[in-house]
Amino acid sequence: xxxxxxVLTNTTLSIIMTxxxxxxxxxxxxxxxxxxxxxxxxxxxxxxxxxVLMGYSVVLASILVTLGRISDMYGRARMYTWGFIVxxxxxxxxxxxxxxxxxxxxxxxxxxxxxxxxxxxxxxVNGIPLLTEAFPPNERGKALGINQVSFIIGxxxxxxxxxxLSGYDWHLIFVVNVPFALAGMIxxxxxxxxxxxxxxVPLDVxxxxxxxxxxxxxxxxxxxxxxxxxxxxxxxxSPWVISSFAVGIISLVAFALIERRxxxxxxxxxxxxxxxxxxxxxxxxxxxxxxxxxxxxxxxxLQGIYLPLHGISYTQTPFWAGVYMLPMMxxxxxxxxxxxxxxxxxxxxxxxxxxxxxxxxxxxxxxLLPYNFSLVPFELILFINGLGNGLFSAPNTTSIMNALxxxxxxxxxxxRQTINNIGSTISMALFFTIAITIFTEYVPSQIAMVSAQYxxxxxxxxxxxxxxxxxxxxxxxxxxNPSSAIPGxxxxxxxxxxxxxxDSNTFLPSVLGSPFMTxxxxxxxxxxxxxxxxxxxSAMKGKKYIYEEVIKS
Length: 553
Fold this sequence. Notes:
Blueprint: H1 3-35, H2 45-74, H3 76-94, H4 102-134, H5 140-165, H6 172-175, H7 177-191, H8 205-224, H9 239-261, H10 275-291, H11 294-309, H12 317-324, H13 326-346, H14 349-367, H15 375-402, H16 409-454, H17 458-466, H18 469-478, H19 488-491, H20 496-502, H21 507-539, H22 547-552
Helix pairs in contact: 1-4, 1-5, 1-7, 1-12, 2-3, 2-4, 2-8, 2-16, 3-4, 3-7, 4-16, 5-12, 5-13, 5-15, 8-9, 8-16, 10-15, 10-16, 10-21, 11-12, 11-18, 11-21, 13-15, 14-15, 14-21, 16-17, 16-21
């Protein structure tokens, strides 16, 4: 086998594993939380959900550039193998967390997911540079297109396996990663060339520290801003949140000043002088901000509202949510490799722009649906979204990596992925803020209306209206009905008919459906604007540019 195909098969394996892990956790969160016996109505529980969702991307945003520099120093193939080792160890440890351990078990899950993110980050920061160096310029788009398809295959496996395995035992969600990780580790040890590091420069400790502190502090601020504070459902006025943002901004300003004076900076600002790198990265950032939280909100829409309204039991919603999201993956599989091949021949710009326009169109079409939608239009819109994402991703990555000097590709890829993960983190905070604000305004009146339809006692209506919006949103996603929030002494005197109504599959979705859709529409409008701005950045990249061709000329 030619070495380029050896690299492609190995990086394909790592992409399948990491994308499968991402989607299998997303689709299986209700099963995991129920298995650990988490009460979504208890104070402060929502923050655990946020950390399970955002912790992985926070770690990636904080350390990817550092991992890129370390890989340059010690050899990319060697570090790449270590990525498999760390990921394997974390996956095995996650599968050993006992069921029913509540918040202590959930805390261990969050910590081990952070460790898993380190392993995934090592694979991520080295996979694309290894692939870029193994293939000649005129074949990179095709290779990265195949790489994109492998991401979708992993996502497909994650959606399906998450739904299937969560019906048996939530531990299997993490066990399924292990064979992929072990195979990738062994394959990389015996088949990848162990070259010496391409860089002898020392690690930029001040830059590493200031960047990590800044990104972690701002991520903490964004996370806890979504928690109630005082009489508000959100915590933007919390001293802890304000302090986190202040520390984060100061650290990032210090980072920028440090990097300007460093002889060998961690975040090489000179790379932003390269037009395809700058505008390609900005376009990717806008895409991440637009789509980062939307996919999770769609999962909530399916698992917490639509599927229960259509008679699907909460134990089956992960599987069916995965099935319903498959058209998006199919669309990406169709256009991912085609976009890469077309980029090799004609350049990235027209296909990036077209992909972003298609994504914007699909997001707008979602705003036209009711919360209890017709299935065919919904699936068609997801398919169109997948087509746009497939057409955008490979050209964007190819143009960025082609524009970089080989010695800068690991750090440049780390910068690219860091900015992508920052966009995803901001997306979560932005769109959850919108959702919770809308919930706070509309849910109490919706509870009163639905309670009247169900004939619930006034005291129960008042109690349900007093529950935090975050708790109701969390409960809907986990499939836990609001009767569990009612104190036991009150439940004992309530008629069984009232408890039966509260425990029905339709009560909570009927309460949350309309407010959720209002919040989702606002989020989608903002996403459309962000994607259009990203399309403008893609259009500003200039003509086809490949570093090696410039050197030869």
